[in-house]
From TrEMBL:
InterPro entries: ADH-like_N (IPR013154), ADH_Zn_typ-1 (IPR014182), ER (IPR020843), GroES-like_sf (IPR011032), NAD(P)-bd_dom_sf (IPR036291), Quin_OxRdtase/zeta-crystal_CS (IPR002364), Zinc-ADH_QOR/CCCR (IPR051603). SMART domains: PKS_ER. One of its GO terms (molecular function) is oxidoreductase activity. Transmembrane segments: none annotated. It is found in: Cytoplasm. This is Zinc-type alcohol dehydrogenase-like protein. The keyword Flavoprotein does not apply. Keywords: Cytoplasm, Metal-binding, NADP, Oxidoreductase, RNA-binding, Zinc. It holds the Pfam family ADH_zinc_N_2. It comes from the Bacteria. The lineage of its organism: Bacteria, Bacillati, Bacillota, Bacilli, Bacillales.
Length: 347
């Protein structure tokens, strides 16, 4: 038997504060071999999301082998599993992967081809790595969960409130909602985040630190048809119930440790729905390949100028020190757009 090849990665054994020097460590692990529908991808750039921070958050559990995080990758297909039909070695790809498998903070990464897209041709690897998780989340929320039409004529006069519009998902959701023809109101709490949300295409900005309805009234809106919540559910639940139109729809990606009173939505016959972009990969749903199609459509949108990358800052190299820095910044809750880590040669 030959010796297994190794690769560099960033992993954790303990769940610690981001600033702790052992919260994320440079490690050497075995280089995986693709089987079934898996691709082996040479990782060129990664980005960091709130899910990374949540998974790494301090708890007593310990790992016997390093746990690898990272759910946004842009790279090049190195090798394909025997059942792959969508890609071949040399293809440039981008994807978010699966929360139930090792993440992409490593030199090479295994991913099921059904949740992988061809990288937008107009973007470099760093710009592309900023997109997959947030684009899948925003797309599924707007078009699958809320059922928005992609035909602008069907959305004439419709309004959407995006709570927490300056973050990674919000930045994409604003652009997609504008593309679909809606009037977009984004919430932002600081001048720099408000400016970013305007740059992404929002029609109006309100703050999520004050009641929504008086602010909506001030810009001539009695209520909104749709709400997409990307910020504290318990903080905004009452506000959302007041601001949503009768027969309106609310989608959230933010879990809550507090029971929410659904009866607040009853008299208005309001629909509430969750979006979790890992559902398809986690449960191996029959329609998993929809994320492959979705990412290819997002790439087309980027290449034709409908969507722009939400990359705000690039760190290099891809190592534990850079990742600890990115985690700490996201944990502070003051990031605008996306933080991407890239290999030095990709800059």
């Amino acid at each position: 038997m030959g010796t297994q090849e190794t690769m560099k990665a960033v992993g954790l054994y303990q769940y610690l504060d981001a600033e702790h020097p052992e919260s994320l460590l440079d490690v050497v692990i075995g280089k995986p071999v693709p089987t079934g529908k898996d691709l082996l991808v040479k990782v060129k750039a990664i980005s960091v999301n709130p899910v990374d921070v949540k998974v790494r958050a301090p708890k007593a559990k310990k790992e016997t082998s390093p746990r690898i995080l990272g759910w946004d990758v842009a790279g090049v297909v190195e090798q394909t599993g025997p059942d792959c039909t969508l890609f071949q070695p040399g293809d440039e790809v981008y994807y978010a992967g699966s929360i139930t498998r090792p993440g992409g903070n490593s030199e090479f990464h295994l991913v099921d081809e059904r949740i992988v897209g061809f990288k937008p041709a107009a973007l470099n690897f760093a710009e592309a790595a900023a997109l997959p998780l947030t684009a899948i989340t925003a797309w599924e929320a707007l078009f699958d969960r809320l059922g928005l039409s992609r035909n602008q004529e069907n959305n004439t006069g419709k309004t959407i409130l995006i709570i927490g519009a300056a973050g990674g998902v919000g930045s994409i959701a604003v652009q997609l909602a504008k593309y679909a023809g809606l009037t977009v109101i984004g919430t932002a709490s600081r001048p720099e985040s408000a400016a970013w949300v305007k740059e992404m295409g929002a029609d109006q900005i309100i703050t999520h630190n004050d009641s929504f309805v008086p602010q909506l009234n001030a810009i001539g809106l009695p209520n909104v048809d749709y709400i997409f919540c990307l910020n504290s559910m318990k903080q905004h639940w009452q506000n959302m119930a007041e601001a949503i139109a009768p027969q309106g729809q609310i989608c959230s990606i933010v879990e809550t440790d507090q029971l929410l009173d659904l009866t607040l939505l009853k008299n208005k016959s309001v629909t509430f729905v969750w979006e979790f972009m890992f559902t398809r990969s986690m449960f191996q749903t029959d329609d998993m390949i929809e994320q492959h199609k979705l990412l290819n459509e997002v790439a087309r949108f980027v290449d034709t100028g409908i969507l722009r990358t939400t990359l705000a800052e690039t760190l290099t190299p891809i190592d534990a020190a850079s990742l600890r820095q990115a985690h700490a910044r996201i944990e502070a809750g003051r990031t605008v757009g996306k933080i991407v880590l890239t290999a030095p040669e990709e800059l």
